Amino acid sequence: MRLVATKTIRDGSELAKTIYNDNGQVLIQRDIKLTKRMLKRLQDLGITYVYIKDAFTEDIIIDPPIPEELRIEAVQMVRTSFDEIRKQGFNRNAYLFEKTSAKMADMVGNIVNEVSNRDEVISIMSDILISDDYIFSHSINVTIYALAIASELNYSPKKIEHIGLGAMLHDVGKVFIPEPILNKAGRLTNHEFDIIKTHSEEGFNFLRKASTVPLLVAHCAYQHHERLDGSGYPRGIMENDIHPYGKLLAVADVFDAVTSNRVYRDAMLPHEGLEILYSGSGTLFDRGMVEAFRKTIAVYPNGIEVELSDGREGIVVKQNKNLYERPVIRIIREFGQDVKPYDIDLAKVLNVMIVNCDLGVVNKV
Predict the structure, then answer these.
(1) What whole-number distance in Å separates Cα of residue 3 and Cα of residue 364?
(2) Around 275, how many Cα atoms within 13 Å sit in the side-chain half-sphere?
(3) What is the DSSP string of 107-146?
(4) Where is the signal peptide (predicted)?
(5) 330 with 56: CB under 8 angstroms?
(6) Are residues 22 and 163 in the same domain?
(7) 185 and 330 assigned to the same domain
(8) 78 or 63, which is more confident?
(9) For residue range 130-166, what is the model confidence (pLDDT) as tens digits?
């Protein structure tokens, strides 16, 4: 299978991975030939890229970071919990939320088991399902990324549990933001953005009153928008005053925000998201957290087309453990001319590097 931009896919291309909504319903089944109407619908939903079948890449395996069924279940749990809080408020819903937080902790445990037991690096997650509310899928994506970072840093099981729950609940304060502002597709006014920014403190004040939620979990909601140079919010605190959990959540949160599908902009690819993090490393984001994160994700995911420094073009076939910037590439063109496909391992061929990614039209289906 091959990763291709939806706006460049040809009519008649076959979908290689089933697309679900966040209720677990199948929107487009794998093996279906995509029509112009389907492709227009995907673009209207903000889907930037999908996996499709390709004659050169039938053997490429895309391993999701957690089973799709578990991710859908987790997204639904976040949706149900946040909707109940939004409808009833904390004072009338304290007992219900405390039971829900226990269920969330169990879900975090399930995700921890999946993340810690996988040999493969985490690949992109925005192709798995279509969400009609970004907050819910974002909460689970950030949880997966945060747990991967915590594991890479060799945090204790208790710390990993707290970070996972804090990640799942980091945006809970958004349930207190007026929905017309929260779901506005266009540019926010300064006043509207000021209202959005209150979600960090609202989430903290909500979580710290729940007896079943550790205070450090509440601080994940409080500090995930703080930045090392003091330019963040809600308090504008600086490096030494930001808890390590806040620094970790900042990295996971920003990466998922820029690599997720949104109706009003294309999703960035992983290497582009990492560039955002590295550009702020040491000033906005903790260097150690960014480095740990880099070691947990596929910089160039399987199925993406790349251009090499020597003029050859190919498709990423396989990741090399601990050398994720240098995967195995299936060469399909040399200097613009199609060639009989062959594989090269950039972990062994050290005199070339990836210089560009291409999500263009598939030549052969």
Answers:
(1) 13
(2) 7
(3) HHHHHHHHHHT--SPB---TTSEE-SSHHHHHHHHHHHHH
(4) none
(5) yes
(6) no
(7) no
(8) 78
(9) 555 678 889 999 999 999 999 999 999 999 999 999 9
The DSSP bridge partners found for residue 51 are 3
Q: Tokens 């995967």 map to which residue? A: 327
Token pair for 212? 């079943």
Beta strand 129-130 with 19-21 is parallel
**Residue tagged 């902790």 (tokens):** 105
Same domain membership, residue 110 and residue 29? no
Q: Which two tokens stand for residue 52?
A: 């499709």
Q: Which of 271, 294, 317 is the endpoint of a domain?
A: 294
| Cis upstream peptide for 341 (omega within 30°) | no
358 has a pLDDT exceeding 90 = no
Tell whether 231 is covered by a domain.
Answer: yes
List strands edge to edge, sheet with 354-358: 337-345, 328-334, 312-318, 305-308, 354-358
Domain contains 327: yes
Please indicate, yes or no, if residue 57 is contained in any of the structural domains.
Answer: no
Whose structure tokens read 């210089």? 355
pTM value? 0.89
Query: What is the Cα–Cα distance from 318 to 303, expressed in whole angstroms?
Result: 9
Strand partners, 334: 312, 337
Tokens of 109: 């445990």
The string of DSSP codes covering 170-193 is TTGGGGGS-HHHHT--SPPPHHHH
Q: What distance separates the 2 farthest-apart alpha carbons in the chain?
A: 67
State how beta strands 312-318 and 49-52 pair. Answer: unpaired
Please give the order of strands across the beta sheet that includes 26-28: 26-28, 19-21, 129-130
How far apart are the C-alpha atoms of 14 and 365, rounded to whole Å? 8
To the nearest 10°, report the CA torsion of 214, 215, 216, 217. Answer: 60
208 lies in the same domain as 231 = yes
Instruction: For residue 26, give both structure tokens.
Output: 């199948």
251: in domain: yes
What tokens were used for 73? 């279940």
Looking at the DSSP assignment, which residues form a beta bridge with residue 342?
Answer: 331
Residue pLDDT, tens place only, 262-273? 656 677 888 999
Residue 31 maps to which CATH number?
3.90.105.10
